[in-house]
ABC transporter (Prauserella flavalba), 327 residues
Amino acid sequence: MIRARGLARRFTARGRTVDAVKGVDIDVAEGELVGFLGPNGAGKTTTLRMLTTLLRPTAGEATIGGCDLRKDPLGVRKRIGYVAQGGGTHPECRVGEEIELQGRLYGLSKAGALRRGAELTEQLDLAGLDHRLTKTLSGGQRRRLDIALGLIHEPKLVFFDEPTTGLDPQSRANLWEHIRRLRAEQGVTLFLTTHYLDEADSLCDRILVIDNGEIVAEGTPDSLKASVSGDGVVIGVAEDSAPAAAEIAGRLDGAHEVTVTEDLVRFRVPRGDTAMPELLRALDAAGIPMRSMQVQRPTLDDVFLTLTGRTLRDAETAPAGEVAHVA
Ligand SMILES: Nc1ncnc2c1ncn2[C@@H]1O[C@H](COP(=O)(O)OP(=O)(O)OP(=O)(O)O)[C@@H](O)[C@H]1O
């Protein structure tokens, strides 16, 4: 569905050059739900805008839904839906008018637009709101309307920029349920950015992490967690045995970040559950009884911290310019 090679965008303003995206390769298969994560200013929106033909790449190439991004931008536009961060609804327009207008803009007949609109409003829990001004909708309803507008022409690939930002947790969960259902019922491929790592973790088939304009990691949420951070393990032993226990833990396959605090030894291993029997045997052989044990699976936050040196929470509050690479 998406195949991009060396896609890059350089901005030049007032004598300063910013390499916002530095030659990224992206592959997304039909039917996949892929999350695109990165701190503020990492290059997510710039990449999305290039893939959706809104911004011309300065280098590289891509095919979207089989159409060449540079040679056939119109073909690309016909095949994709783009739900932008701020949405595109007019506050004084009525829901039904917005949907019909969008359908007509994509070349549907009036009857076709109404039919498709009715289908989408039903699927997105917007039925009965046709006569409401869009400014009177709740945040969640407005986001669902944005999605309906993005899907009116039955695209096979939909780009979402921060679909759930600004919604309360309940509306976020509700919106995700709708996105999941749309995917199941309409078989659409989804490529989205989000700041919510818990969402990305539970919903995305695959995740790409971008930082400073470069893809720094990609994989399933589980493989990213396993490869980047490993599990965190904390064992309790007698305080005077802790240095020896730390040495033994450090010899486990893939063990790293071994630290000792009083009677606790902390370390990371690729898989805590499989490392435990070996650790127990080795401690036993050294005559060190283990008093307690805890294995913590890493979160995507740990992955993010390892890869970018920041948590996404820092990233959310940091101004975009701070992380930009200025050539
Ligand atoms: N039109 C522009 N002119 C100059 N610099 C730009 C322009 N658009 C984006 N940039 C810069 O390119 C870099 C990447 O910006 P981009 O908006 O793609 O990041 P992002 O990952 O989407 O961030 P956010 O999470 O804040 O939306 C930033 O340093 C930004 O300041």
About this structure: The first helix runs from residue 44 to 51.
